[in-house]
Amino acid sequence: MAAIGPRGDGAGEAAPLTLADYARSARARLAPAVWDFLEGGAGEERTLAANTEAFDRYWLRPSVLRGASRPDTATEILGRRWDAPLAVAPVAYHTLAHPAGEAATVRGTAAAAAVPVVISTFASRAVEDLTGRGVPVWLQVYCLRDRAVTRGLVERAERAGVEALVLTVDAPHLGRRLRDVRNGFRLPAGVVPANLTGGDGFADPSVHAREEFDPDLDWTVLAWLRSVSPLPIVVKGVLTGADAVLAIEAGADAVVVSNHGGRQLDGVPATLDVLPEIAEAAAGRVPLLLDGGVRRGRDVLTALALGARAVLVGRPVLHGLAAGGPDGVTGVLRILLDELTDAMSLAGVRALADITPDLLRRSGDR
Ligand SMILES: Cc1cc2nc3c(=O)[nH]c(=O)nc-3n(C[C@H](O)[C@H](O)[C@H](O)COP(=O)(O)O)c2cc1C
Ligand SMILES: O=C(O)C(=O)c1ccccc1
What's the Cα-to-Cα distance from 99 to each of 76, 95, 318, 335, 337, rounded to whole Å? Predict the structure, then answer.
């Protein structure tokens, strides 16, 4: 976060070259309280900071003379081809960043690459306006106390053509985000969940979550979700090997190693730092995805070398959206893709299957 300058400093007017450029440009355009909501984490934001810092503790060990001038970034996950090992993480209320919201995100993503967009339970555009537009759409599910509402959301998404469900398991309630408390953050008028029926009182997300989220879920929730929908179930928010095993035993088709971008329990480790433990426990039984702090193409290489099959990117996509609408989203994803292929080529990695732990050296190790 150190690269982010003060508002109105004129940065970001030249064509953005990095995700940090997009972050600066977004910050200059967004109301400060909205920026804080998007950017902030829980507590002292130790986990938020750790997510990005963890990537900087690894160095790459290139192999030379590998004929890797045109690396192949394609992969297959849950039976679908992805152009690159990247997806858009679920982030509530994209209309906070741009009036077209998730519709702009989907359009911008499709222009960059065929990779999934995971829409939040709190997406601010109707799911029917997001599917069938060139990229797979997955639905993130918060399991609410009112299971009929959750079921209705899932059935609606399935009818619309959503291809997988991402069950978030790290949020019995929302973490204590001090920036939002200090700002008295409320959603601006008109920013509402477009796919949830009934009710209002959404304006303070943390109050709403306390009232509506089911805070007492256990692993049987997977069987319940399975009874509601035949779609693949991805469990998001696992941080230990033991929980990854329980997720697999409960029937998860994939697991997202995530600390919710440092927004839930402050003091948990960086996702990158728990990935090896989880990869060992999962032992290849399900694909592992990772999110949190991915800001450069080479970060994708690092995560894959430690056992992820793909990564999800959250805040940077919203930065692109705020900075330039669909074109900004395309720009963010293209930068990540260009940086990834550049790093693969220079590291002698022809295809994702070539990526092994040998590609890395942890700083300080000999
Ligand atoms: C503003 C914001 C809203 C989010 N909303 C959701 C959500 O509705 N559901 C969810 O599972 N995760 C949500 N997340 C967490 C992201 O899916 C993801 O785990 C995290 O942002 C990844 O870290 P990154 O932002 O460093 O890439 C949200 C994150 C942010 C920043
Ligand atoms: O999940 C989140 O991090 C989040 O910020 C959120 C916001 C609104 C509704 C639900 C979750």
Answer: 33, 5, 12, 23, 26
Helix (H) or strand (E) holding 6: none
- Retrieve residue 94's tokens: 């994209």
Ligand 1 pocket at CB < 6 A: 38, 51, 89-92, 120-122, 140, 168, 236, 258, 260-261, 263, 291-294, 313-315
3-class DSSP assignment, residue 137 = strand
Nearest CA owner, ligand 2 atom 9: 205
- Residue with the bigger pLDDT between 3 and 183: it is 183
Q: Which amino acid is at 300?
A: V
Q: How far is the CA of 300 from the centre of ligand 2 (A)?
A: 25
The residue among 263, 68, 73 whose CA lies nearest residue 180 is: 263
**CB 92 near ligand 2, within 6 Å:** yes
**Per-residue pLDDT averaged across 118-144, rounded?**
98
ipTM for the predicted complex: 0.99
Helix axes 315-347, 19-29, angle to 10 degrees: 170
**5: CB partners within 8 A, 6+ apart:** 11, 24
Phi, psi (5° rounding) for residue 77? Answer: -135, 135
Segments making up each domain of the chain, as ranges: 19-356
Distance 69 CA to ligand 2 centre (A): 41
The CATH H-level (homologous superfamily) assignment of domain 19-356 is Aldolase class I (3.20.20.70)
Q: In the chain, what percentage of residues exceed pLDDT 70?
A: 96
Place of tokens 């088709």: 253
- Which residue CA neighbors atom 6 of ligand 2 most closely? 92
Long-range pairs of 356-360 with CB within 8 A, sequence gap ≥ 24? 356/305, 357/305, 357/306, 358/61, 358/305, 359/60, 359/61, 359/301, 359/305, 360/58, 360/59, 360/60, 360/61, 360/302, 360/305, 360/306
Distance 274 CA to ligand 2 centre (A): 23
The answer for residues whose C-beta is within 8 angstroms of residue 354's C-beta and 6 or more apart is: none
The b-or-e profile of 154-182 (16+ CB within 10 A means b, else e) is: bebbbebebbbbbbbbbbeebbebbbbee
Q: Mutate which of 34, 91, 122 to test ligand 2's pocket (most atoms within 8 Å of Cβ)?
A: 122
% the chain with pLDDT above 90:
93
